[in-house]
Design goal:
- The chain is built from 14 helices and 24 strands.
- The chain is α/β, with parallel strands linked by helices and 424 residues long.
- Helix 10 packs parallel to helix 12.
- It binds uridine-diphosphate-N-acetylglucosamine.
Length: 424
């Protein structure tokens, strides 16, 4: 809700355990991939977040029947597609809607998807999505604010595609388009985020042959989508970014808190950096426990494609570094403009200087509670974390950003002992 706000009071202790939901960045692509399946796709471990509800609307606009058999599972029946157009009103609200481009091209032979347009965190272009589809033989043009993809009568043809940058979205769109191409598609310099591996697992269980899972070179054997399995079930991988967010809360306040429901290997660099920052971690196969007794220490980070430090954890780490002993440098390499959070946390007394894509964070002894506004999804979550250690009260507006990607964020933090409330 646009006018909701969150009130956080300084919290002296967090303890207990919290379970993360399925990954936002995986479920959205899996839902898009259901377009390829000439039958029913059932996903479990689905987070009930605003972006999932938006993707549901995008799919419904295409004729996919979407239902929720349980609160954490969603079912898509894509037997009959009735449209290949993803309308502007939906795409403009969620860039990930562009994930329907590849599967629509493969299954329907055409896709008309609104250009996502400007975004608070940088230009976020779709050039690599388009050139990748063109390499497979699709004709693409941009007209009246829409990307129009047309597949020739002869169909998509497998090809070798080299990405200039390991874009997550372009890799996923290409994988899904390649499923409907004739012959083999090879993607070189592919992104290898765990959510991409999750998409590959899903497609393999639907009957696609894909080699190179988890590597930068993927080989996809095209099949006619009509030959894919007509009933596919899949459990969404745990959300490593949600897990990282709670772990930073533990590092800020102290812990011990246990975060469950994710694979700690997916967060290896973040865990390493949390240790450098003075936290102690105990790692299990699907959980991690964090405690911190000594001071928070300054640590330098730079964001990079996986397995590097995730850009989606940058703001949360900036909140941690803003109360560290000493100065740290945070370098953002994935987006050209993702430091809006710095201006907001400065209102709480943080000392941050931005120069180009570097942020120099000088730790302060104490943040002070203030009214602030979520600049975006992760920045909003990071403001909540900062509020836990700021004296007095922090009032965070723009909660709809947080709702896009965190399920029950306040409730989960409150279950750990956070003094947090949400108001409408
Ligand atoms: C995905 C994630 C997002 C995360 C990002 C990077 C989802 C729904 N979102 O976004 O949370 O922050 O990966 O890990 O999964 N670019 C181009 N041309 C293109 C495509 C991308 O220039 O055709 C640029 C973008 O402007 C951006 C960078 O590449 O600066 C990374 O984008 P990309 O990896 O594609 O991220 P998304 O898939 O949009």
């Amino acid at each position: 809700m646009e006018n909701d706000y969150i009130l956080v009071r300084q919290t002296s202790q967090l303890q207990g355990s919290v379970r993360v939901s399925g990954a936002k960045n995986s479920v959205l692509k899996l839902m898009a991939a259901s377009i390829l399946i000439p039958g029913v796709t059932r996903l479990s471990n689905v987070p009930d977040i605003a972006d999932v509800r938006l993707m549901q609307q995008v799919l419904e606009a295409l004729g996919v029947e979407v239902s929720w058999p349980a609160s954490d599972s969603v079912q898509m029946d894509a037997t009959n597609l009735t449209s290949h157009k993803a309308p502007y009103e939906l795409v403009v609200r969620m860039r990930a809607s562009t994930a329907v481009l590849g599967p629509l091209a493969a299954r329907a032979g055409a896709a008309t998807v609104a250009l996502p347009g400007g975004c608070a965190i940088g230009a976020r272009k779709v050039d690599m999505h388009i050139s990748g589809l063109e390499a497979l033989g699709a004709q693409c043009k941009i007209e009246h604010g829409y990307i129009e993809v047309a597949v020739p009568e002869t169909g998509l043809q497998g090809a070798e595609v080299m990405l200039e940058f390991p874009s997550v979205g372009a890799t996923e769109n290409l994988i899904m388009a390649a499923v409907g191409a004739q012959g083999t598609t090879v993607i070189i310099n592919a992104a290898r985020e765990p959510e991409i591996a999750d998409l590959i697992d899903f497609l393999i269980s639907a009957g696609v042959t894909i080699k190179g899972r988890g590597t930068t070179r993927l080989e996809i054997e095209g099949v006619q989508t009509s030959k894919l399995t007509t009933e596919v079930e899949h459990k969404v991988v745990g959300d490593r970014i949600e897990a990282g967010t709670f772990l930073v809360a533990g590092a800020l306040v102290g812990g011990p808190i246990t975060v469950e429901g994710f694979n700690p290997e997916h967060l290896a660099v973040v865990l390493k950096k949390l240790r450098e920052a003075g936290a102690e971690l105990e790692i299990n196969t699907d959980s991690a426990t964090i405690t911190r007794e000594g001071a928070i220490k300054a640590t330098t980070i730079q964001t990079l494609p996986y397995p590097g430090f995730p850009t989606d954890m940058q703001a949360q780490f900036m909140a941690l570094m803003s109360v560290a002993e000493g100065a740290s440098v945070i370098t953002e390499n994935v987006y050209e403009n993702r430091f809006m959070f710095a201006d907001e946390i400065a209102r709480m007394g943080a000392d941050i200087r931005i120069e180009g894509h570097h942020a120099l964070v000088k730790g302060v002894a104490q943040l002070s509670g203030a009214p602030v506004v979520s600049p975006d999804l992760r920045g909003g979550a990071a403001l909540v974390l900062a509020g836990l250690v700021a004296n007095g009260e922090t009032q965070i507006a723009g909660v709809h950003h947080i709702d896009r990607g965190y399920e029950q964020f306040c409730e989960k933090l409150r279950s750990l002992g956070a003094r947090i409330e949400r108001f409408s």
